[in-house]
Fold:
Amino acid sequence: MTAVSAVPTVSIGADQLGRSLRDVRISVTDRCNFRCPYCMPKSSFGPGHRFMRRAETLDAREIVRLAGIFVSLGVTKIRLTGGEPLVRTDLAEIVEGIAATGIKDIALTTNGALLRRWAVRLRDAGLHRVTVSLDSLDPAVFSAMSDSRVEVGEVLDGIAAAREAGLAPIKLNCVVQRGVNEAGLLDLVEFARRERLSLRCIEYMDVGTTNGWRPAEVVSGEEILERVSRVYPLIEEDHDPTAVARRYRFEDGGGDLGVITSVSRPFCGDCTRARLGVDGRLFTCLFATTGIDLREPLRSGADDDALRHLVADRWKRRDDRYSELRGLGVVEGERIEMSYIGG
Structure:
């Protein structure tokens, strides 16, 4: 698959708040084999839900071409998300095409259930690392939070397969929700320490409009750190402004822990990310209500320079800071669902 040249030809510049575009998350499907209530609750995404038709979604060549556009604008990291990206049968072809742009960091976020069958193929295609969503080690809690027939052991086996394939470092993402899984937080910490995995604890967020988000169900990053540090003392590391997680290392040398605090301690001012939706709309915020359509010009014959200018113009006009404005009533309209835009 031919990819666009990665040599920058357009100076994209900073957005309205001085932020540069460095990280693009590409959602390759709106489908998933889980029905996690905080992302795709079965009440909204049940048997009658209409997923996007194939003609509405970007094909592999279109995804790779747009990835090349992003790289040519200075993007240094591309993360593939969903839905669940491993349900897409041409995922290895997509990874191979993106790798051909010369980008040095291609990551994948997955629920891990299908990772055993995919790990080697994705490594061979050029994938660098994986992040696995794992909200609990307790079988009953895991079953409730995934709302699926997948057993937690299948996800653990997928993590082992990724390690065997050399997809490292492996990160774990855990959405911590009060009254649901916070009691098992230390079990996950101990698992991550034992297996030398990087755990990222994420505050429960109001992404989309279907997950019934309530502030009372948020376990703050401060509380997470307090719970963990009582057992395993932590030392805060220097903050990387391009990273969404604040990182801490265990005092005894047993690895590291990250905390993502979009609710209690927003980091909009450091955000360098854009998101490409399943149907080719580009969003400049996880909590966006609208995006610009790249699919139509792509399919209408726009050349690479025209596409670059569309992306650059949208980024330069960007002034998103939803998390900082949360609760002030300044954002109207239905936000894009996480299953469409990725995490």
Notes: The chain is about 30% helix and 15% strand. Residues 44 and 294 are 27 Å apart (CA to CA).
